[in-house]
Amino acid sequence: MNDNNEGFYRAFEDRFRGSREMIKQRLRVYLPFVTGLREAHADFRALDLGCGRGEWLELLAEQGLAVQGVDRDDGMLDACRERALDARKGDALEFVRGLADESVTVVTAFHMIEHLEFDEVRALVREALRVLQPGGLLILETPNPENVVVGCTRFYLDPTHRRPIPPQLLSFLAEYYGYERVKVLRLQEAAELHGDNGGVALLDVLGGVSPDYAVVARKRGDERVLAATEAAFAAEHGVTLESLAARYDRVRDEREEALRAELGRLAAIAGLAEERVARAERRAREAAEGRALEAEERAARAEGDARDAEARAARAEAAALRAEERAERAENEAREAAAMLDAVLHSRSWRVTRLLRVLSGASRGGYRRTRAMLARLARPVLGAAVRAAHARPRLMRFARARLAGHPRLQARLRGLVHGTPGERTPAAGSPVPEPATFADLSPRARKLYLQLQAAIEHRRA
Amino acid sequence: MRIVIDMQGVQTQSRFRGIGRYGLCLAQALVRNRGRHEVLLALNSLLPEAIDGIRAAFDGLLPCECIRVWYAPGPTRAADAGNDARRRRAEVIREAFLASLAPDVVHVTSVFEGFGDDAVTGAPASRGSWITSVSHHDLIPWHDPDRYLRPDPLRERWYRDRLDVLRHADLLLANSEFTARDAHRALALAEERVVCVSAACAPVFGPLALAGARAESLVRRLGLDRPFVLAAGTIEPHKNLARLFRAWARLRRDVRERHRLALIGRNDERHRRLLRDMARTAGVRDEELVLAHVSDDELVALYNLCAVTVLPSYDEGFGLPALEAMTCGAAVIGANAASIPEVIGREDALFDPYDDVAIAEKLEQVLTDEVLRASLKASGRERAGRFSWDATAKRAFAALERVAKRRDPGPTGERPRVGDVLSACIDAVAGIAPAPGERESLALAQALAYSFPPRDRVPRLFVDVSELEQRDARTGCQRVTRSVLLELLRNPPAGFRVEPVYATVDSFGYRYARRAIARLGGRSGGDEDAVPIDFCPGDVFFGLDYQAQVVPAQRDFLLLLKRLGIPCRFLVHDILPVLLPDYFPAGTEPGFRRWLCTLALFDGVVCVSQATANALRDWYRAHLPGFDPRFRIEWVHNGADIESSAPSAGLPAEAPTLLAQLDARPSFLMVGTIEPRKGHGQALAAFEALWAEGVDVGLVIVGKQGWHVEALIERLRGHPERNRRLYWLEGISDEYLEKLYDAADCLIAASEGEGFGLPLIEAARRGLPILARDIPVFREVAGDHAAYFAGREGTDLAATMKDWLAQYAAGRHPKPDAVPWISWRESTRRLLECVLAERAPSPRRGADERARPGGSVEAAAPAREEIHGGAQGA
Description:
A: 461 residues, alpha/beta, elongated, B: 874 residues
């Protein structure tokens, strides 16, 4: 971290990492790992590298556990000292090197290693193994580049980040240096993405994967100390890119399948109608050839039938035509969506330019904005699909039925069509984007807003 | 009467269909025939696509302040039940907006809108104090609910709702007697509430004196190698094509062989396949049938050329193809059903549309009986003459006047106060449950602000000074910005308040620029810092600052202004990045190109020289295929009185020495940033050549180091003549520069491209002779009062310099004193003339407006003169 910017990182954390309470809440996921070890080691001692504002220190202190933090940033240390937490100034790696063998129960580093060169990370993993007590844990949390948004942009929001470290690399590192058991925890994903059945939007595939992950590595020890953390190791966490992409594909496949079935059904109807027309015409012809009065009556009847059947045939034909167009459009749109995803995942310039954009205006709302940018990318494709469906009431009804079980996807799609205010950049000739906050209103609109609020309040009262 | 026409029927997808064309033609006719009445158009901003087209269609016909736009948060379409509350609120806003216009009549172009789109054409229950009239086209869905309504309960509910709106209207203007009778019967309306005003066709239809070659190429292209029967090739069932095919198959063999059947319409490949299959099944041979989709002009030609046009439909609201064909002088036969007999008006031109034999007989008769055909043509032409939009408009006015007379004379004439309407509207909006959420409330507030502009507000002239507001880079462009803005603030145009504004690339809309004013020492900052601007029709936007990034980023905002009728123009300093892209850093050109393309969406630009204006016009013509000829490219020279732009002062210690050196020999001055385009390299080569020949001359280069000139800078720095006969001065004060102008003998302007030529004028004002590269903009600025050189080698310039030195010695060189120039005050005055030129033409109702033809929304208005000379420089 940068020593020259006292207070900068504290302010940066305050803005981008989230409130103290929120961070503490997130860190609770590690408590099951740690608390078990209290019984196993009477001399329990935890060490937090890059302790920042000291959320972890505070959390363990509340549990009555001995814990010490190290950080290089005075601004951060001030925050710890304000809370009377034991935090020292110093370089993490040097500090660990200075510790005796088997002197620490738990070593943690939350969002620290992405600031280190890879050789330093290696040294840290190795040194930690040396200082850990038997059965002790090394916990390293870092942004998860499996999340496309994190990997491409959000990671670079912090200019001192070196490079994203994929979970496979970090867990291999721990295994390589001889930790007894290594587990990857994917963390901080949106709760709506839990479970395996909900539909997901393209945006979820790009930005929904657990944005952070941790590697928890355990040092060898006797059965008793290992048992203390066994349960914690068994629990499963997080959402992977593969699972989201598979879910997205499934939703799309189902939709296409349904359209195909509908097309088949309509084609069958058209066929039937055609047969009936042919039959009716045959009857009409026979009638015309038949005897005078009777034949005339029959002909008149048959013609009536023919007229109906013809209308039906024309209708069925038109319907078949529309269905064919719909299927073709759906296919094209699916193809476009796939190409878009592909382009996003592989485009170097996309990443680079986004990074520049985000950094150049980095003072606020970076993540929200990145999401908005992605939404903008995805919107034209999905939006066009949904609007196309809107123009066709039958397809719309059918789509609604399909979507009924997926409220989140439904809301997402509706958002794409109608746009979420403040988030969209309209195309040529699109409606006025709606203001997202009071500050977006012109002076006159502000007055009217207050009047409107007063009127609403008045009605409520 | 004041009549407000609700144009939403011309804004939705209906604009591509008969309803939209009818609505537009009728509205244009009402405007043309308004007489002592007043006509306003009301547009819904939730349907923005056609707003520009509608404005263009009324260009010159109606003052632009009579075209009003209202706003409401969307979406409101009835196809989504989740929109109900929002739509009801939009209905309230629409109603209040109409009330704020104090209409005596509101005419709705179509009430059957708003299901799959965001049109909001009123609720049955609500009714203002005005007379509501509605254009009524047909009830086809009501005739055939199984086909059109039952399949979608939501649509059915919506349609029945719309029928209620029709029932509650004070007056229905029907397009035919048939439609009028149908409405009486179906809606149980009193006789006097439905009036047939009829219809007409677009002015493009008429008899043509067809040049043989054009007609021949058209029929050859379509494969119409013999006389043909023309019919509309739309596949809808009520068009009855299956029977037409069967009838064709029944024609006498020789008649069939001598003719072709041509179906013309919006049909794509699939439609054509279907039609072919239908025709084949009915016994029509492939080679007999021609299917085509043609332009309007070609359709006119085909109507003129066909043997007969046939309209076999059994249901039509009006039967426009029959009238179009008759107007073109074609023989027309058609079904004895719905409104068709009214249009054709001849018993012997009709047939029973349900009877193949009857259709075949009529077709055969008209194809074989030349006398009958001639008579049909003559009577058709005569009858078509009775249908005209002006007649329709007059009938509509008469009907409206009758209703107005019957009705109690309400408190008309007095315009309701905007404040009252607005307060009532806010109350009503707040009363619709569920109450709007935070986002929607914000959107509602903004929509209300847009929809209800305050009266008696001084129009604003918004001046974009984004660069000055945020950075104040001291470039040449910025000098122009400062000078013009200063002048505008000192002498604002009459009837306007000048409002400097700025925008950034990452937030929507322009904001009040308080810092820029403070920088110029004008008004104080005020408390409206960084607040989005309030704007109204009548305001004007002028992009004074060069903003290649911001303008494209704010495109949608500027389009919003344009839709509201606020003209947007921009100042263009030069277009060198697209003319000489090699002279700019990589990546400059695409951004600049994007900027130019964005500008073309708006009303016009003002260039700083005629040369730039010409180059820009050429560039637009070459690069923008759809370039709107109404886009105005004007030009005004920059001011040349440097005093106005807050000059800097100060002389360095070595100044007196250098100035003395200049007096020792003929000295030449170059002023401007050192960039590849500016020709410093060529000039240095020329001086080296002269020095080598022993010619004793001096060169002073004034200017900062620019981009991509490292090698040249090396040459300058290490030059043996440096600080002897060659000087390079970076970043000197205006005061020092003045002294250099006075001490030097000649200015060399070697640039290969400039937007303007300010250094030439500055030199001329101080009596300094000029030697300039022969490019149009320098010729424009200095005329015959400068010497010129051509060629790109040092020796080219050296040769010209030797000639010049000889002339100079003899006092025969071109004298600079007569180089014309204008002050910033004058420049700004002319600039304002361009910027405010098209400010809403005052409401006039001259005869010239009456002659204007109608046309579709997509049609471009006639071209105007594109280059309007601004400053003549004299």
